[in-house]
TrEMBL record:
Domain of life: Bacteria
Membrane spanning residue stretches: 23-41, 47-70, 101-121, 128-149, 172-191, 228-244, 264-287, 299-320
Keyword presence, Zinc-finger: no
Species whose genome carries this gene: Chelativorans petroleitrophicus
Location of this chain's protein in the cell: Cell membrane
Alphabetical list of Pfam families matching this protein: BPD_transp_2
Listed InterPro entries: ABC_transp_permease (IPR001851), LivM-like (IPR043428)
Keywords linked to the UniProt accession: Cell membrane, Membrane, Transmembrane, Transmembrane helix
Chief place of localization: membrane
Stated name of the protein: Branched-chain amino acid ABC transporter permease
Topology class, membrane: Multi-pass membrane protein
Length: 331
């Protein structure tokens, strides 16, 4: 590589990152459209808040799966830790202030994620799937065994979430819950967007594409993976805390393998390595589930499976990936 090429390469990368950081008209329109739910679908506000919570969780998984290439089937561990942290803070410690509850839950999940990351970065491929799955199952069984603390299969009860900022109480119609979850989703999205459109995000893409070549260019790839895994765990804990605070209950299901598997399905539907793909996947999955379960509560997963097969066969990079390819803007 010549001296001219060496000086031009960083400039080209910076220009690419700056172009990715600019907000498009479609992005602005999308976030403005989320506010229309208040006026056009007021009876679906509780479902909309669940979509916002799940979308935030999907974003957390996309950071490690779509951008860093860490295949995980146990990320519900962090979602559940966040839910139980916020729930126990209220039910056992008597502190139901929502914002500090969010911070506490996110910090705890992030701390556990940091500790787990030292194990995660040491394995790859099939071993990585087994390790993440094993950690998730162990956490689930631990929570079940500590029924005196978590409530076990009966769930954690006695959660009382105070009004947000002492002003906005959670109403039965879901106006406050949706506003709260949507605002948190937007904040989590902004943080994630800043991460993936930075030099750190560019390094993560390099790790995803070819982890063996990263040390050759002087990249401490294991340090990068530990950082993103910790950040992802913290965001997942944030989404779990939202669920506990908006429903005032925590079921053992928040730690289940099913929740981890479902979010991977959402990413496949929307498209991995695309933050909006995580949001779109959560919207499609939960809306289809809501409609199909109303028709047949037992076999609604058949419809999800059929949809998944269609997307994988005709849009292997997800719905957003397929649309980007048609538009000639595939990344």
């Amino acid at each position: 590589m010549t001296a001219t090429q060496t000086t031009q390469a960083p400039g080209a990368s910076l220009a690419w990152l700056r172009s990715r950081s600019r907000w498009s008209v479609f992005e602005i329109a999308f976030w403005l459209a989320t506010l229309l739910t208040f006026y056009f679908f007021p009876s679906y506000l509780m479902l909309a808040s669940q979509i916002a919570i799940t979308a935030l969780f999907a974003i957390s998984v996309d950071l490690v799966l779509g951008y860093a290439g860490i295949i995980t089937l146990g990320h519900a561990m962090f979602f559940g830790l966040g839910a139980y942290a916020a729930g126990l803070l209220s039910a056992k410690a008597g502190w139901g202030e929502p914002l500090t509850g969010l911070l506490f839950a996110s910090a705890l999940a992030g701390l556990v994620g940091f500790v787990a990351s030292f194990l995660i970065v040491r394995v790859q491929h099939l071993a990585l799937i087994m390790v993440t799955l094993g950690l998730g199952l162990l956490t689930y069984e631990l929570a079940n065994a500590l029924s005196w603390l978590t409530g076990g299969t009966d769930g954690l009860r006695g959660i009382d979430t105070w009004p947000i900022l002492g002003l906005f109480d959670f109403d039965l119609w879901g106006y406050t819950a949706y506003s709260y979850t949507l605002a948190t989703l937007f904040l989590g999205f902004l943080i994630s967007r800043r991460i993936v459109n930075s030099s750190f995000g560019l390094a993560l893409r390099g790790v995803r594409e070819n982890v063996r070549r990263m040390p050759a260019i002087g990249s401490a790839y294991r340090g990068h993976l530990r950082k993103i895994y910790t950040i992802s765990a913290a965001i997942a804990g944030l989404s779990g805390a939202l669920l506990a605070q908006t429903t005032n209950t925590v079921a053992l299901e928040v730690l289940s393998f099913q929740r981890s598997a479902d979010v991977v399905v959402m990413l496949i539907l929307g498209g991995t390595g695309r933050l909006y793909g995580a949001i779109l996947g959560a919207i499609i999955f939960l809306l289809v589930r809501d409609q199909l379960s109303g028709i047949n509560p037992q076999y609604w997963y058949f419809g999800i499976g059929l949809l998944l097969m269609v997307v994988v066969l005709f849009m292997p990079r997800g719905i957003l990936g397929g649309l980007a390819r048609l538009a000639g803007r595939d990344q």
